Amino acid sequence: MMQNRITLPEYDLVILGLARNCEHSLPKILKHIDWLRESGLSVLLIVGEDGSRDKTRGLLLSSGPDTLLVDTTQFSEQSRLVRIARAREKVLEKFREGYKTKLVAVVDMDSGFATSITAEAISEVSRELLSGHFFAVAATSQPYYDLLAFDSWAMPNVDFMELEREAKRNFFSFMRFKYLVVHPRQRKLTTNHDMRAVSAFNGLCFYEPALYLESSYIPLADDDWPCEHVTFNKHLAAKGLSVLVKSSLIVTPPSEHVYSNPFKLICQVLVKKLKSFSR
């Protein structure tokens, strides 16, 4: 007896992301995805949801049949880097079930980066990926903010989470870390030109679908968990390809990553301290 096989539709774009307490950014993202669909693009959204305590889950469940939720709550108790890597891997496994697409976009759902996805951006990214030189095209920003996921031959990846933990011992060591380590590195990566890298994300990264399916967010050594994008991209960079950080694909960086006047920041912290003492 022959069994009926379910044929899954082919999409122009599959967007993959993780969501946890994202009710502030989700409406804008979902509205933009609806706009993409209304403009004629078929878009599938696959989101790993991690037990949100706000309206995140409800917003995703009510967004239509082309939004799929993946439960990632089983990883909630693990350390941040391990939790996120395993959650992204589970979303990848959902995509591996047979969904076909011309392009994959991995998006940070905490911010409105998905709104940078336009028909023009898709066309430009597709041309770059078809060149055969790149396995991915990542966004840039002013300033470039995502140092944790960046790795290149000229600027090797650094464990910024560990450095930040050590710097947070007191306010002055943290300020020194921000202005002597983080900001100079951000300035070097903030440019109006395209860049090649071993790994990059910066909130929005497009992948060639067949290559995306070949990689993994899980590191080979279980005791070494860098940023999940570094692990994933290095698997693909080993094929001799690279990530293109595209100067025309621009996202707005989160406010906490924008350069700020150190004296202004010190005053803000002191005011907060004084207010807490006066209560």
Give your account of this protein's structure.
This protein has 279 residues and is α/β, with parallel strands linked by helices. The chain has one domain: Alpha-Beta Complex (Spore Coat Polysaccharide Biosynthesis Protein SpsA, Chain A), CATH 3.90.550. The chain is 38% helix and 19% strand. The strands form 2 sheets. The protein has an 8-stranded mixed β-sheet with strand order 4-3-2-6-9-7-10-8, with helices on both faces. Helix 5 (160-167) runs antiparallel to helix 6 (171-189).
Task: Give the key terms.
9 helices, alpha/beta, 10 strands, 279 residues, eight-stranded mixed sheet, single chain, Spore Coat Polysaccharide Biosynthesis Protein SpsA, Chain A, two-stranded parallel sheet
Shape descriptor: globular
Helix content: 25-40%
DSSP E strands, number: 10
The N- to C-terminal Cα distance equals 76 Å
Assembly state of the chains shown: single chain
Task: Summarize the entry for a quick read.
The chain is α/β, with parallel strands linked by helices and 279 residues long.
